[in-house]
Design brief:
The chain is mainly alpha-helical. It is built from 13 helices and no strands. The protein starts with a helix and ends in a 13-residue tail after the last helix. About 4% of the residues have low confidence.
């Protein structure tokens, strides 16, 4: 695959990724002032990068839009994106005068670009072979455009990285650092474009297109950090709910007073039709399983853990699963003892169970089907 083909594919992927991120984050971002600026910045960048893609440019020119108009629009939106970056950065400082200065500077820059473009109206435009070229060959136009981008990207890099070192919010840390990395790629792109305009070879253009495409992917990633974190948390909660369900169902059936709501008929229903948000469901099942485990310690027989451990070893259970298997065997015997009506005795704490650790409970749940009936149930006539 040639560099040009790779750059084209990365560019298309970056466009789709940025618009996907914008759609996913539109509702929550526009409701929160501290995320609104980032969303608007990525929006402007997405429009500019979309108009940078050759296929998009060709499609627009086929509908009768002039190449010069497309390139000028793209450059103005690019400057707007750089200005929004600055506004997003200074917005956290609450310095009204600084924000006003950025707004005035942004307006002046865009106005100057329009004036310079009109002054050079008689210069030849770029042809179909240079769809990614400048909107105008005037050096002042390009110098102003590139300086605006370099200033915005340099400020974003420094401020984002510094703020990422000061906050404890992991989502914000990753968003800021990814935004800073994206600014590095944008900075490199504009430096390379400046070199190209000052006499660089056209062979640089595919590499520059590749760089701006990667920049778009990273911008999209910076916007999707909260969504990704939420998906990871949901997946973790779903995994806990699914794997813990058989153990939780059996224990709360034996100790019903610990459950906020009775289990549904199947765990598929528990996952597909949860009565609580998944994170709360997983947390509730963990707490209720642990509470039931504490109650059932009154029904644990002397030596049950050691006997279950020997049984698991003889059954060929892996060494790293022996502890969980022994706990499952002892707990299964205690559950059946309570269900059978055996009188309780002094609680016998099971080893290795610390504060209802989800990892420990999931380990017990993993061995539960094979170990729940491993030990004989004591006779109800004889207290433990």
């Amino acid at each position: 695959m040639s560099t040009h083909e790779l750059a084209t594919q990365v560019g298309v992927c970056s466009v789709f990724a940025m618009w996907f991120a914008l759609v996913c984050r539109a509702r929550p971002a526009l409701r929160q002032p501290h995320q609104r600026g980032l969303w608007l910045t990525v929006l402007a960048a997405a429009v500019a990068i979309t108009l940078f893609q050759p296929k998009i440019v060709r499609s627009l020119t086929n509908t009768g839009v002039d190449v010069h108009t497309i390139a000028l629009t793209r450059n103005l939106i690019g400057v707007l994106s750089a200005g929004l970056v600055l506004l997003f950065m200074v917005g956290s400082t609450r310095a009204r005068r600084l924000r006003l200065s950025v707004l005035v500077g942004l307006t002046a820059t865009m106005g100057a670009l329009l004036i310079l473009d009109r002054l050079q109206i008689d210069h030849p435009r770029e042809g179909p072979a240079s769809l990614q070229g400048p909107a105008d060959p005037a050096s002042a136009y390009w110098l102003l455009l590139i300086v605006a981008h370099l200033v915005g990207d340099a400020v974003a890099l420094v401020v984002c990285w510094l703020y990422s070192l000061r906050t404890a919010d992991r989502d914000l840390v990753w968003s800021l650092r990814l935004f800073a990395v994206g600014s590095v790629f944008a900075f490199v792109f504009w430096c390379g474009y400046l070199w190209h305009l000052c006499g660089g070879t056209p062979a640089m253009l595919p590499y520059l297109s590749l760089i701006i495409g990667v920049h778009g992917l990273i911008r999209a990633a910076s916007l999707l950090v909260p969504t990704t974190t939420a998906l990871v948390r949901s997946w973790t909660a779903l995994r806990i709910t699914w794997h813990l369900w058989p153990l939780w169902r059996d224990l709360v059936a034996a100790v019903p007073h610990v459950a906020l709501a009775t289990p549904q008929r199947t765990r598929l229903q528990e996952v597909l039709r949860p009565r609580f948000p998944l994170a709360l469901q997983a947390h509730r099942q963990t707490i209720e399983t642990y509470d039931a485990l504490l109650d059932l310690q009154q029904y644990v027989q002397p030596g049950a853990y050691e006997e279950a451990h020997r049984h698991a070893r003889q059954a060929g259970v892996r060494a790293d699963h022996l502890t969980a298997a022994a706990l499952a065997g002892a707990l299964g015997q205690a559950r059946r003892a309570k269900v059978a009506g055996t009188p309780p005795s002094i609680p016998r704490p099971l080893p290795g169970v610390v504060h209802g650790s989800p990892e420990t409970l999931l380990g017990i749940a993993r061995m539960w089907p094979s170990m729940t009936d491993a030990l004989p149930c004591p006779s109800p006539a004889h207290p433990l």
